[in-house]
Amino acid sequence: MENDIKYMKMALAEARKAYQRAEVPIGAVVVCNDQVVGRGFNLREQTQDPTTHAEIIALREAASNKVSWRLEDCQLYVTLEPCPMCAGAILQSRIKRLVYGASDPKAGAVRSLYQLLDDNRFNHQVKVEAGIMEKESAQLLKDFFRELRLRKDG
Questions:
Q1: Integer Cα distance of 122 and 119 in angstroms
Q2: Given a cut of 90, is residue 37 above it in pLDDT?
Q3: Suppose 86 and one of 20, 82, 94, 136 were both cysteines; which one would form an S-S bond, judging by CB atoms 3.0 to 4.6 Å apart?
Q4: Contact predicate 31/62, CB 8 Å
C-alpha cells in the first residue's frame, strides 16, 4: 500500500501537467521492478489525436524503454479508471496489475460500465486495485471542469 501511494502521487503529478496545458487532468505511471519506466498525461487537445490518453502514452514509453510490448512484470498507476480503449491496451501489453484512483461511471471499462480486465474470455487478466487516492484524483477533475465551465460562461 505504501508503494501504491508513492506511485499514485507520481500519477497525480502527471495529471497536473495535463491540467496546466488545459487537458483533462489524467496521469499515468508504469512501474516495473520498483522502477518507473513510463509516464504519461492526457494530450488529446494538443495532439488532436484521440488515442493520446495518459495510459496509452505511459504504456508506449514503458514498451520503448523495456524494448518489449510485453509488460508482464509491470504495474500501471492511473488517476482515473481506464476507458475501453485503454483497458484494451492494458490487456494487450499484459500489465500484471492496475491501480487507479477515481471511478468513471460514464466511461470506465474496469469496474463501472464494463469489467474488461478480469473477463476470463480474454487470454490475460489483470489484478485491479481501485480507489487509491480517489479523493485527490476526483478533486483534480472536479476543479478542472469547474474552471472550464467558468471560462465558457465568463
A1: 6
A2: yes
A3: 82
A4: no
Catalytic residue list: 55
Residue numbers belonging to the annotated binding site? 53, 83, 86
With CA atoms as reference, report the closest residue to 12 among 107, 119, 144, 154: 144
Binding residues for Zn(2+): 53, 83, 86
User: What gap in Å lies between CA 123 and CA 153, rounded to an integer?
Assistant: 48
pLDDT tens, position by position, 85-111: 999 999 999 999 999 999 999 999 999
Domain span at residue 42 reads: 1-153
48 contact partners, CB below 8 Å, separation of at least 6: none
What's the structural domain count of the chain?
A: 1
Q: For the domain that residue 41 is a member of, what is the CATH number?
A: 3.40.140.10
